[in-house]
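Following up on my earlier thread - several people asked me to post the actual chain instead of describing it. Fair enough. Here it is, all 141 residues.
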Amino acid sequence: MANIKRLKKLVRYASTCKRTFDFKFINGGRCDELDTIDNVPNAGPRGCLMGMLPFIWKPWTFSSTGFLQLKGNHHEATNEQLINRIATWFDITPTQMRHVFFPCHQEVKMYGGLMLNTSSNKIEVMMNLNLFIKHLKNKKP
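Reply from S.P.:
Thanks for posting it. Predicted structure:
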């Protein structure tokens, strides 16, 4: 069963996050722009929902080169590994993870929400996440 509590916590944080939202980047910025932001080292000045995880939950961090990872993993994850780790974190499937966190991967017929692309803004992405949470709540066990 999906961890709706974590998904809602992400919604609350994202609605007040001061970093520039950019759906094209998990943690965007040149290497010389990486800095400690809100006690999170190696954070760039912009990013998407995935890039907010280290600001909310201590097990998530950015590597010295700015890649999102779980603490304790000493190598950068492949895209599939990262997808699976985030899906596991929220207790959702990899397809659901892509629906929420990736541009151009929405399964609107299956989960509701909006079709998103790399130019989608924070309001659109947040609306998609909220509609996904609503879908999960209405889903029969």
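The chain has a mean pLDDT of 92. That should answer part of your original question.
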